[in-house]
Known about the structure:
Layout: H1 2-20, E1 30-39, E2 45-48, H2 50-63, E3 69-81, E4 84-94, E5 101-112, E6 115-123, H3 127-138
Amino acid sequence: xxxxxxxxxxxxxxxxxxxxxxxxxxxxxxxxxxxxxxxxxxxxxxxxxxxxxxxxxxxxxxxxxxxxxxxxxxxxxxxxxxxxxxxxxxxxxxxxxxxxxxxxxxxxxxxxxxxxxxxxxxxxxxxxxxxxxxxxxxxxxxxxxxx
Length: 147
């Protein structure tokens, strides 16, 4: 349960960074050599290093999330297995004149000595195709990529 509480604190720090654009406090939750991976989406990537991850999060938020109305944590299920916290949840983005886009994903945070060493976001089957179609039809001016 301890890691779930740490994960919840990290998510709260992310939401504060999202609102304030001050990403520095979020860095305290990450190891310097952490990696962040996104799988099964057109913007799949691997980002290595705490500073690069923070820059990538900020980039994606500025160029996609904040240009939409975002709803996170839809139907969340969270559990801990060893040094991993696993969350399965949905996320929805909306913008005027477009239908919402919705995706479900697993987010897996691996901890080492109390801080996150790796985060992997694995989107459910079909999400990549649905998102690519949504972006082609209604995504003008949006860029969700991290790198």
